[in-house]
């Protein structure tokens, strides 16, 4: 459907033919990011508007609907005054000077609140992903002081109490508060939420009922201020890792000379990248590793976890970050890996320990983050390994005696995985509560947080998302419907992979002592 008489340039928008999940034809609107002129036919790299970036691809002209072609709009410029550049009311130079003045003033002014120290020893970063959408206000919840004093008492159903969506619910517990309270209106779990930027990956915990905005000060949160057309495009066509071939989803800053290769070869043990199969075979004769470097801190069956210090094993850690960046868009890759620990999950067979996924965390986190980046490699996704990684991160937090939360923002897949894990973990506790002295069971938010090491804000947001909290006679009542109970039981029957704390051999270190870095 392409018209050869019209030239398509970068920035144009038009419908492009693609197959949806049902293998049906659809024509979503797409933006042309790059044009590659080949001898036979040109190719166009397109980004589908309102779709995740991992679906971006090169397309041929026959998939373009030229009848609805939209050319990029030219930006209106203010004419110069008296022939002097930058003298107009909206000139970029003046705006830059104003922003610089404001930043200097804000930096010199004394801060009233608590300031967060910048992460230590951070090297120059490559900014590769967008910030999450701004947080939306959510209903007020009891303060931390109230929560700590708010036991869950047994509640009896009053005939006068009626709630249309809760007619079949059985009250599990009531959360009382000291003093006056405002009614909590949790979001409906089936309701679609509007996202900024139009992509589903921008949906964050701010729309899921977390009482505060997601923090953007984490160690690996990306910054789009340096985003350009190069980093918006995938630069690696295919990666061969052991017995798997992977199609990258996003840009990763591998060396420029390797980006034009049809296949990039990686050693599955040390993750070194090589340009040809012959180079890989020669490398394997010299590579002594058959497992990730570092200490094996967990083993059960064929699953093992290795703890890797980003300072002691710098080359491996950097190679791991390069590989992970192919499948993570919300995080920034740092070449200084010293402040991080990497926990690599592997699957063992007769040939060695094969990498399945990993997560990283800061040695010192000022905001109780227990995960910086987390990834399950595509060949192992949808098999329960993602929840196993999450469960292991919280198992480490239990040993450390802390509550933890993942670094924000989460990707779309990461958000789904965490929400599912929090749901199953909290429901498992609530359903296993035993009545005492003939009374209904009681538990506090703080107790749930201490048992699971899940941060209180994440516990509350999960209860809100599931719509379990109801307000009745001055107290918060937790109710479980039959649908939620049945759905939880079905989900737990499918969840075969679990962390066994007996197989964990881990001693936390005090990283505040610089000598241990």
Shape: globular
Radius of gyration: 26 Å
How many helices in DSSP terms? Answer: 9
With strands numbered from the N-terminus, the spatial order across the biggest sheet is 14-15-17-18-20
- Helix content bin: 10-25%
Find the count of extended strands (DSSP E, 2+ residues): 23
The secondary structure category is alpha+beta
Low-confidence regions: 86-219
Strand residue percentage: 15-25%
- On the 0 to 100 scale, the average pLDDT is 76
Instruction: For the record, give the distance between the C-alpha atoms at the N and C termini, rounded to a whole number.
Output: 60 Å
Q: The biggest beta sheet, please?
A: 5 strands, antiparallel
Oligomer: single chain
Main location: nucleus
Region (Disordered): 69-224
Keywords: Acetylation, Acyltransferase, DNA damage, DNA repair, Metal-binding, Nucleus, Transcription, Transcription regulation, Transferase, Zinc, Zinc-finger
InterPro entries: Acyl_CoA_acyltransferase (IPR016181), Chromo-like_dom_sf (IPR016197), Chromo/chromo_shadow_dom (IPR000953), HAT_MYST-type (IPR002717), MYST_HAT (IPR050603), Tudor-knot (IPR025995), WH-like_DNA-bd_sf (IPR036388), Zf-MYST (IPR040706)
Can you offer a commentary on this structure?
With about 525 residues, the chain is α+β, with helices and mostly antiparallel strands. Helix content is about 20%, strand content about 20%. The protein is built from 9 helices and 23 strands. The strands form 7 sheets. A 5-stranded antiparallel sheet has the order 14-15-17-18-20, with helices on both faces. Strands 1-4-5-6 form a 4-stranded antiparallel sheet, with no helix packed on it. Strand 14 and strand 15 form a beta hairpin. It starts with 12 loop residues before the first strand and ends in a 23-residue tail after the last helix. About 25% of the residues have low confidence.
């Amino acid at each position: 459907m392409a018209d050869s008489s019209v030239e398509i340039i970068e920035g144009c928008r038009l419908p492009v033919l693609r197959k949806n999940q049902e293998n049906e034809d659809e024509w979503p609107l797409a933006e042309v990011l790059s044009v590659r002129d080949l001898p036979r036919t040109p190719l166009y790299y397109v980004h589908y508007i309102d779709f995740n970036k991992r679906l971006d691809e090169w397309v041929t002209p026959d998939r373009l609907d030229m009848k609805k072609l939209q050319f990029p709009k030219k930006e209106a410029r203010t004419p110069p005054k008296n022939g002097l550049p930058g003298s107009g009311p909206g000139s970029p130079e003046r705006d830059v000077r104003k922003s610089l003045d404001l930043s200097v003033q804000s930096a010199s002014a004394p801060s009233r609140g608590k300031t967060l120290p910048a992460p230590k020893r951070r090297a120059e970063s490559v900014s590769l992903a967008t910030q999450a959408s701004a947080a939306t206000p959510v209903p007020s919840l009891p303060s931390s002081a109230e929560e700590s004093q708010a036991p869950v008492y047994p509640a009896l159903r009053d005939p006068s109490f009626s709630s249309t969506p809760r007619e079949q619910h059985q009250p599990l517990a009531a959360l009382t508060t000291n003093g006056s309270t405002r009614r909590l209106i949790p979001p409906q779990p089936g309701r679609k939420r509007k996202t900024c930027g139009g992509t589903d990956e921008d949906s964050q915990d701010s729309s899921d009922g977390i009482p505060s905005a997601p923090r953007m000060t984490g160690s690996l949160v990306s910054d789009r201020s340096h985003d350009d057309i190069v980093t918006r495009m995938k630069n690696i066509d295919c990666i061969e890792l052991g017995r798997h071939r992977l199609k990258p989803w996003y840009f990763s800053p591998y060396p420029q000379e390797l980006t034009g290769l049809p296949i990039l070869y990686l050693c599955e043990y040390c993750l070194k990248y090589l340009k040809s199969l012959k180079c890989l075979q020669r490398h394997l004769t010299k590579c002594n590793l058959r497992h990730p470097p570092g200490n094996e801190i967990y083993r059960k069956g064929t699953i093992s976890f290795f703890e890797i210090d980003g300072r002691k094993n710098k080359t491996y850690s950097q190679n791991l970050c390069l590989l992970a960046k192919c499948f993570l868009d919300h995080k920034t890759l740092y070449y200084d890996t010293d402040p991080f620990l990497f926990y690599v999950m592997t699957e063992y067979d007769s040939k060695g320990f094969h990498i399945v996924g990993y997560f990283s965390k800061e040695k010192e986190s000022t905001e109780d983050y227990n995960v910086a980046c987390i990834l399950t490699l595509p060949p192992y996704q949808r098999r329960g390994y993602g929840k196993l990684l999450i469960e292991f991160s919280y198992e480490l937090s239990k040993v450390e005696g802390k509550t933890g939360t993942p670094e924000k923002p989460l990707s779309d897949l990461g958000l789904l995985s965490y929400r599912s894990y929090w749901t199953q973990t909290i429901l498992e506790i609530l359903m296993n509560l035993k009545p005492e002295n003939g009374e209904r069971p009681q538990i506090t938010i703080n107790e749930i947080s201490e048992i699971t090491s899940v941060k209180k804000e994440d516990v509350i947001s999960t209860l809100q998302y599931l719509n379990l909290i109801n307000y009745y006679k001055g107290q918060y009542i937790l109710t479980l419907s039959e649908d939620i109970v049945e759905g939880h039981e079905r989900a737990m029957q499918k969840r075969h992979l679990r962390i066994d704390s007996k197989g964990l051999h881990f001693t936390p270190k005090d990283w505040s002592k610089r000598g241990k870095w």
